[in-house]
Amino acid sequence: MNSPLPNRFRQRILARERLIGFWMCMSSHITAELVGLADFDWLLLDGEHSPNEVPMFLQQLQALQGSASAAVGRPSWNDPVEIKRLLDIGFYNLLIPFIESEEDARRAVAATRYPPQGMRGVAGAQRSNRYGTVPNYLQTINDNICVLLQIESRPGIEAVDEIASVEGVDGVFIGPSDLAAALGHLGNPGHPEVQEAIRHLYQRVTAQGKAVGILAPVHADARRYLDMGMHFVAVGTDLGVFKQATFALREAFPT
User: Residue 35: which CATH number?
Assistant: First the structure.
């Protein structure tokens, strides 16, 4: 296991580089190992809408150990206990869903920081500090955890300035599907009102010097968001790619 510090992915987020990512839904360490060979800039391991639990996340992180891709974990909720467990098994980058207020944002950041900056519980030896072998881990890790917060509701849109301004928030991720549902356009993130909300969020967050990201598995959408200036964009999902290839293969060889 290589030393995790400094966190190069966080440095790139803070520099607002263009980072191309891929969404991992299948909860498989074998799939993770394979996708890790493609050298995406980042891979999202999902715990909100996928059946991942901590041991499964751990297997996937181990499978990605030799990959150049940065692993980003998404807990099921803004829960400090769940966040603590993901940090301890070796996530240094977190995408925390359903942030609706400055208070939500501060609570999310605090869950990733040891006291006095936050409330993360202290374990002397865990995978994140290479089982106690990383020098000065406790003194440096607070500055090496990347916190990305997801906005996907009307209250989140209304509070975007306050959310993005919280110290320790490194970037904001837009959830297009939930945003569409919240705006009354369930299943239609391409609706003009949803697209206007996405542009608004992008403008407000970038005005504060923060990175903005989004999930866009449709190529035309991904290119549009990249042309807009989005910084970290997931351009596909393992489940989507597998499903598309499987059905295409079956259609190529009908009975």
Answer: 3.20.20.60
The answer to whether the beta carbons of residues 208 and 166 sit under 8 Å apart is no
Rounded to the nearest 10 degrees, what angle do helices 54-63 and 80-88 cross at? 30
Given this model, what pLDDT does residue 122 score?
97
* Domain annotation covers residue 102: yes
Question: Which tens digits make up the pLDDT trace of 202-230?
Answer: 999 999 999 999 999 999 999 999 999 99
The C-alpha atoms of residue 37 and residue 204 are separated, in whole angstroms, by: 35
Residue-range definition of the domain harbouring residue 22: 8-143+214-252
Q: Is the pLDDT of residue 3 over 60?
A: no
Both tokens of residue 69?
Answer: 């891709």
* Active site (annotated) includes residue 49: yes
pLDDT at residue 5, as a whole number: 78
Alpha-carbon span 188 to 176, nearest angstrom? 9
Q: Would you mind telling me the total number of residues written for the chain in this entry?
A: 255
Is residue 28 within 8 A of residue 239, CB to CB? The reply is no
Residue of 16, 147, 21 lying closest to 91 (CA atoms)? 147
Q: How many domains does the chain have?
A: 1
**Is 158 inside any structural domain?**
no
Q: What are phi and psi of 239, to 5 degrees?
A: -65, -45
81: Cβ contacts below 8 Å, ≥ 6 apart: none
Which one from 29, 49, 191, 219 is the annotated catalytic residue?
49
Instruction: Find out whether 128 and 141 touch, Cβ atoms under 8 Å.
Output: yes
Residues 8-38 have pLDDT tens digits of 999 999 999 999 999 999 999 999 999 999 9
Mean pLDDT for 220-244 is 98
| Residue 64 domain-assigned (yes or no) | yes
Is residue 2 domain-resident?
no
